[in-house]
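Q: Please design a sequence for this.
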């Protein structure tokens, strides 16, 4: 009877061990499927999902920092034709994009429309001074007039410059340069970002992901149009990808991410760089490709972004983008800070520039399972152009056309601690717990099964020997 009880107990152990191991094994595909289904449901942009909450108001806000290029030798440039020497002055920091998206309307074709309100609030804690700090910078009105007024009319422009007592450079406060001042030459308010506060970006029309999760966040229309009208080419006018705040779930590191930026009036792509840990959450870092700012000679896809063959030396200059067509005709040139990835001639024309990859590159930190962007750094430099003139006095000593850096913008955001803790609990911790449970079940089950099986064989052998 005792042998029977012992054998029966071992058989029961074998069965229990096999059942536990089987359950653990089943949990591997079943658990993964449950996670996938959960992510697919929660990645849709609709009220009640985590993606919607993150999309509506990015956690932590966006800090936009402006670093100016302060001219050290303005008189020598104008009177002697010296090469401009600049030093950085900043940052001057502002909170932006902390206001929830506005005018949200869900449409029958599984898209949602919205507006983004622009507002910048000065943040002294992250600034080197106040908005009243003085900056020696290029005269915006003179540079703009030089670019926009035809050469036969430069004599008229010369009289206007003299009568308004304007020069090639000026001293203005941070507030004036950024948000506007009344200019004596143009007799109107001008500024690098004027008007800004209480203006809107959009409207945007994007896919919610309902019905096709691969399209979640993808822009269907911007300003009621499926394409741009800034570039004289169908390819360059394409609106590709999302706005950068989120992408389709289950991001593949081997494939680039596409997003549209209204700041630079075009779509760009980013490639995987490395895997990182962001507040306990694994993320993929995607960086802007150097080919994005390459000259058409090196990247033929950029041929339609070359608008002025004179300034770009027959489209061989890399690193700058003429966005005047989407800035109401204002001659604005966009680049990466310190002309990162730009042609050497851009750096040679200005002393004091030193591009540093880690400080000046643009990147996105994307959680690969949900496709949500948890952090980013967008770095953009604003430049204007001036050149020699035989008529305009303040330009007579200038030797060559110069793309002059005015300010660069370091716009960063990172998931706040509270949101990170919630996401970590919902995603990382639950996945870790599931992984531990199924491995534990499989391991314990196999151990019990193997042990009981061996003991059962030993018992059976002994029983046969005693018979």
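A: Design:
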């Amino acid at each position: 009877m005792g042998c029977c009880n012992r054998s029966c107990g071992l058989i029961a152990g074998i069965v229990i061990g096999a059942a536990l191991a089987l359950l653990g094994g089943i949990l591997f595909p079943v658990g993964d499927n449950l996670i996938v289904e959960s992510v697919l449901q929660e990645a849709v942009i609709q009220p009640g999902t985590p993606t919607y909450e993150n999309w509506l108001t990015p956690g932590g806000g966006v800090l936009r920092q402006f670093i100016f290029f302060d001219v050290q030798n303005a008189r020598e440039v104008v009177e002697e034709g010296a090469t401009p020497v600049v030093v950085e002055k900043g940052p001057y920091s502002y909170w932006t994009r902390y206001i929830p998206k506005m005018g949200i309307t869900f449409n029958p074709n599984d898209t949602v429309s919205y507006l983004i309100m622009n507002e910048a609030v000065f943040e002294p804690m992250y600034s080197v001074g106040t908005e009243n700090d003085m900056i020696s910078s290029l005269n915006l009105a003179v540079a703009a007039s030089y670019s926009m007024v035809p050469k036969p009319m430069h004599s008229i422009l010369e009289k206007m410059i003299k009568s308004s007592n304007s020069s090639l450079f000026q001293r203005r406060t941070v507030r004036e340069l950024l948000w506007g001042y009344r200019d004596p030459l143009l007799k109107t308010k001008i500024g690098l970002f004027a008007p800004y506060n209480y203006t809107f970006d959009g409207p945007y029309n994007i896919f919610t992901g309902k019905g096709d999760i691969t399209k979640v966040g993808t822009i269907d229309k911007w300003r009621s149009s499926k394409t741009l009208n800034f570039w004289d080419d169908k390819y360059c006018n394409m609106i590709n990808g999302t706005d950068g705040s989120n992408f389709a779930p289950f991001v593949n590191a081997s494939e680039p991410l596409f997003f549209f930026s209204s700041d630079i009036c075009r779509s760009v792509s980013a490639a995987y760089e490395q895997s990182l840990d962001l507040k306990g959450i694994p993320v993929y870092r995607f960086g802007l490709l150097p080919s994005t700012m390459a000259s058409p000679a090196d990247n033929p896809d950029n041929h339609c972004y070359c608008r002025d063959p004179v300034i770009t030396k027959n489209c061989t200059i890399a690193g700058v983008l003429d966005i005047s067509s989407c800035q109401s005709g204002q001659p604005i040139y966009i680049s990466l800070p310190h002309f990162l990835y730009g042609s050497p001639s851009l750096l040679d024309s200005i002393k004091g520039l030193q591009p540093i990859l880690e400080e000046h590159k643009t990147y996105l930190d994307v959680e690969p399972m949900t496709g949500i962007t948890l952090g980013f750094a967008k770095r953009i430099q604003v430049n204007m152009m001036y050149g020699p003139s035989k008529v305009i006095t303040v330009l007579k000593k200038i030797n060559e056309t110069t793309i002059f850096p005015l300010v660069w913008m370091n716009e960063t955001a990172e998931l706040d601690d509270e949101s990170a803790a919630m996401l970590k609990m919902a995603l990382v911790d639950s996945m870790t717990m599931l992984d531990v449970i199924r491995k534990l079940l499989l391991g314990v089950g196999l151990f019990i099964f193997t042990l009981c099986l061996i003991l059962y064989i030993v018992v059976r052998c002994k029983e046969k020997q005693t018979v």
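Q: Thanks. Anything notable?
A: Residues 282 and 448 are 35 Å apart (CA to CA). The longest helix spans residues 417-466.
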